[in-house]
Amino acid sequence: MKFGPRGSRHALQLQAVVAILDGNFLSPLTYPNAMDQVLNYVEANRSRYLDELKELIAIPSVSTDPQKKGDVARCADWIAAHLRGIGMQTVQVFATAGHPIVYADWMGAPGKPTVLFYGHYDVQPVDPVNLWTSPPFDATIRGENLYARGTADDKGQVFVHFKSIEAYLKNLGRLPINLKMIIEGEEEIGSEHLEIFVREHKELLKADLVLISDTPMFARGVPSVCYGLRGISYMQLDVTGPNRDLHSGSFGGSVHNPIQALAEMIAGMHDKNGRVTIPGFYDDVRPLSKKERRALSKLPWSDKKYARELGVRALYGEKGFTTLERLWARPTLESNGIWGGFTGEGAKTVLPSKASAKISMRLVPDQSAGKIAKLFQKYIKKIAPKSVQADAIYIHGGEPAVTPIDSPGVKAAVAALEKGFGKKPVYQREGGSIPIVVQFKQILGLDTVLLGFGLPDENAHAPDEFISLENFFKGIRTSVHFFDELPLYMKNGHRRRG
Amino acid sequence: MKFGPRGSRHALQLQAVVAILDGNFLSPLTYPNAMDQVLNYVEANRSRYLDELKELIAIPSVSTDPQKKGDVARCADWIAAHLRGIGMQTVQVFATAGHPIVYADWMGAPGKPTVLFYGHYDVQPVDPVNLWTSPPFDATIRGENLYARGTADDKGQVFVHFKSIEAYLKNLGRLPINLKMIIEGEEEIGSEHLEIFVREHKELLKADLVLISDTPMFARGVPSVCYGLRGISYMQLDVTGPNRDLHSGSFGGSVHNPIQALAEMIAGMHDKNGRVTIPGFYDDVRPLSKKERRALSKLPWSDKKYARELGVRALYGEKGFTTLERLWARPTLESNGIWGGFTGEGAKTVLPSKASAKISMRLVPDQSAGKIAKLFQKYIKKIAPKSVQADAIYIHGGEPAVTPIDSPGVKAAVAALEKGFGKKPVYQREGGSIPIVVQFKQILGLDTVLLGFGLPDENAHAPDEFISLENFFKGIRTSVHFFDELPLYMKNGHRRRG
Questions:
Q1: CB pair distance less than 8 Å for B327 and A254
Q2: Closest chain A residue to B332, measured at CA
Q3: What 3-state class would DSSP assign to B368?
Q4: Collapsing DSSP states into helix, strand and coil, what is residue A275?
């Protein structure tokens, strides 16, 4: 790894002298030249930053694939080496029963707030590989974007902060805040071992707030701070009919085809109004306030444009709610996968023994993942016809979360986004889930600031995932400003401004 | 290939002398010793017969798999060489635009009926391979059965007749009838090129009746003659939602999930009474006569035993009909395969762009495969929600067929089965399809005799396919008797007896 031209190291030493003369490390805001220096360094190193990100992307750290376990471990080591290289003080790779967790800190700003940064270096699988325009692990610039698995979710967004930190440490020898970082390798498979790690390292992870960049902005050119996430209950539904695959001619008409039975169950999970039919499913849903519905309705949004962009003639969802309300503030149920019988080329006249589906439910406050999973299992028992056997397995879950809009972290984020992107950000929620946000609140008592630099059409879990180059570089500037702004709003966890 | 011990060749010469002295080839019935000789030869060669069948089974002639094209061709050549070896006069491998067709004949019985034997040497795919107890192409005896792909459907049943023919020709130097044979390689994929072949070789294929062994007996120990087959219309249904795979969190609740839409369509294809809901589906169904319903109700059958044997707690099907009626005389609709989204290990939160299913309908007289396919396509257009695109592709079809119970061929088959198995056979229909039966009727004007030696639980299209060893050897004896009996009922296509 290389870090910047020779000149910047010289500037760094100079800046260190200034700081020492001053007797304290002050916010660079009080030294406009220092801030310029940090931001100029970012500008001067754009091309190297991208080269390094490509190197990180090239490691196929697909956490769900047992065969990629070595790659996932290699990715953790790469991250650790990189964090050492940019100047983090402590860097340690923690082994877990699953994939490793990288911890790093820089604690050289006594009296200043401590940020706990969280990100993940694992990525989603890349199938179907043939639908990628360029190889999924070979980051490629096309137009205004960088395409590859992990560019948006989450390697690219994690890297935004790495480069902001580097710019500070290489130029000023310090950060305006104290920083702890955990970068995990199991986000895409439910963060199973992270929770144990957090519980076991409460003291190590003590901080004032959590910072995460793993969400999309509201739209291209619309910087956004995200204050809410949906939770998830992820299930697998296995339907077994006859005890073996049968000839569909010789047996068709005598037994319940498990594909048909599964289809009947899935079809019955929504009513005519697009509502989920599981009894009790909506019981704990916190209703949308009039104020929030008004705020959401003011966001720049067009159903027509959205439908056109997704290539569908009509949208679909729960009646009585707008699209944004359905995406952010209403629970949903989706089939993520289905399989059974003959799925190859040609024709095979089989009446299969089994059919299965992966089904996940997105949750909103105050639903609970475990409770919803139980309701699902109870419902399956109720609706499964006697002619088949149906088993619902709870694969993983995460709780929904909402962070107060008037918290110091959110305020600092708003100020930083305005400086980084040159325009006022909007407040938004996200339909996806980051279960760890809930755990940080529950275990460490910390609110999370969601500073997302992705885009809604970034194909996070699909072929041709990308990050906007503009967002990547403006994201780095925003990160620089966030670290700079935060002490103005918060001192050791207490509010200063606003 | 080896054919019999030296002694039998000697006997053959002797028998030929007798025949020549007699001035004509008479039915062996008139020479009880000749018949004994043929049957004794079968008994004496049981072990070699099985070894040869294993050799045939070992060729993985999976017609639907483009990568197995070479194996399919090799299998055709093996069949041709074998038919030459057992003494067929003319043997020729016809190339087609698909897989080859093997033709053979023995026309040395002028004035006697001509049988057109049809069989197929191609087999179904073997996936899921891990569910096979022994390797699918390594024929293995366990208990009373021989297990491997193709043992029942149809290599094993074809081989039954090869060995009966061999026993005649090696011992007596002649058959009691004239025999033409076509063994094709595309039965499992719709016999596309066989129909063209039959149309182009009407003169070559001229005969008095068609003989096929590709059906199961009613039950183990219950020899059966089959007088009816269902037809088939095989469709693929593709449902497309958004133009790319989406993150199910970020997008769930806004668009119609194509898995869900597909499930809704499949679920809607049957009503609460298990009837197919496609408008017009039952219009051309020939109602069951009271006489046939009575006959069916007398067959040894237990729903309870059937359900237990298949491992289901309850049977399923069209209300108002018995299981046998539903299987044999009522049309049905089955999902043969379904796929979409993430189907691997673990969890992927995708809202897929596409989901597909293979759906086939079994038809009875007087439904037409093409018409039903059109009704299906029209129905899909009608029920597909606006929020997705649905395309129904007609993959292949075959018409249903029923052969009169009092035809000479069926009568000869009944007599032969009684001698071969030592008990009176039952009359049955079959739920499966042999489209070529309809084409033989339409193109050549021939009725088909269905002399099946399989079993209902033979796993024809599933792992652990088998043929009963008892049925294999009694089948050979039945074939010997069928060739012997036929001239008594039919002379050049005209009835003699009964």
A1: yes
A2: A253
A3: coil
A4: coil
DSSP B236: E
Predicted pLDDT of residue B497:
46
The whole-angstrom distance between A17's CA and the closest CA on chain B is 48
- Quote the minimal CA–CA distance from B420 to chain A in Å: 25
CA dihedral A416, A418, A420, A422 (to 10 degrees): -170
Other CB atoms within 10 Å distance of the CB of residue B2: 9
DSSP letter for each residue of A291-315? HHHHHHHTSS--HHHHHHHHT-SS-
Question: What's the angle, vertex CA B92, arms to CA B87 and CA B97, rounded to 5?
Answer: 150
Q: How confident is the model over B437-486, as pLDDT tens digits?
A: 888 998 999 999 999 999 988 998 899 999 999 999 999 999 999 999 99
Give the predicted TM-score (pTM) of the model. Answer: 0.74
Class in CATH terms, A6-229+401-495: alpha beta
Find residues 47-66 of chain B whose CB sits inside 8 Å of chain A: 64-66
Q: Catalytic site residue A122? A: yes
A141–chain B Cβ distance below 8 A for any pair: no
Contact, A431 vs B250, CB < 8 A? yes
B344 in contact with A at a CB cutoff of 8 Å? yes
Q: Is B399 exposed, middle or buried (0-12, 13-18, 19+ CB in 10 A)?
A: buried
List the beta strands (DSSP E) in B215-353: 224-229, 231-240, 246-247, 332-341, 350-351
Report d(CA A108, CA A112) in Å as an integer.
9
Q: List the catalytic residue out of A52, A71, A166, A187.
A: A187
- pLDDT computed for residue A405 by the predictor: 80
Q: What is the pLDDT of residues A355-404, one digit of tens each?
A: 999 999 999 989 999 999 999 999 999 999 999 999 999 999 888 988 88
| B196/A49 Cα distance (integer angstroms) | 65
Q: How many CB atoms lie within 10 A of CB A28?
A: 26
How far, in Å, CA of A362 to CA of A330, rounded?
Answer: 8
Let me know: does A434 contact A157? Beta carbons within 8 Å: no
The phi-psi region of residue A80 (left if phi > 0; otherwise alpha if psi is between -120 and 50; otherwise beta) is alpha
Q: Is A189 an interface residue toward B (CB < 8 Å)? A: yes
Considering the segment(s) B231-285+331-398 as one domain, its CATH architecture is: 2-Layer Sandwich (3.30)
Domain range list for chain A: 6-229+401-495, 231-285+331-398
Q: Which residue of B has its CA nearest to A457?
A: B246
According to the model, what pLDDT value does residue A238 have?
A: 98
Do domains B6-229+401-495 and B231-285+331-398 share one topology? The answer is no
Which ipTM was obtained for this model?
0.74
Phi, psi values for residue A127, rounded to 5°: -70, 145
Identify residue A468 by its one-letter amino acid code: S
C-alpha to C-alpha distance for A146 and A475, rounded to whole angstroms:
14
Residue A462 to residue B350, Cβ atoms within 8 A = yes
Are B179 and B387 in contact by the 8 Å Cβ rule? The answer is no
Q: Which of B250, B255, B343 sits opposite A460 (nearest CB)?
A: B250
Percent of residues, chain A, with pLDDT higher than 90: 79
Predicted confidence band of residue A494 (pLDDT cuts 50, 70, 90): low
Test the B interface: residue of A130, A214, A255 with most B CBs within 10 Å: A255
State how far the alpha carbon of A299 is from the alpha carbons of A295, A419, B21, B206, in Å: 7, 21, 105, 78
Residue partners of A319: CB distance under 8 A and separation at least 6: A273, A274, A275
Note whether A230 and A331 are within 8 A (CB): yes
Dihedral angle, C-alpha A226, A230, A234, A237, nearest 10 °? -130
Coil, strand or helix: which one is A393? strand
Question: pLDDT digits over B29-66, tens only?
Answer: 555 689 999 999 999 999 999 999 999 999 999 999 99
* B242 in reach of chain A (CB within 8 A): yes
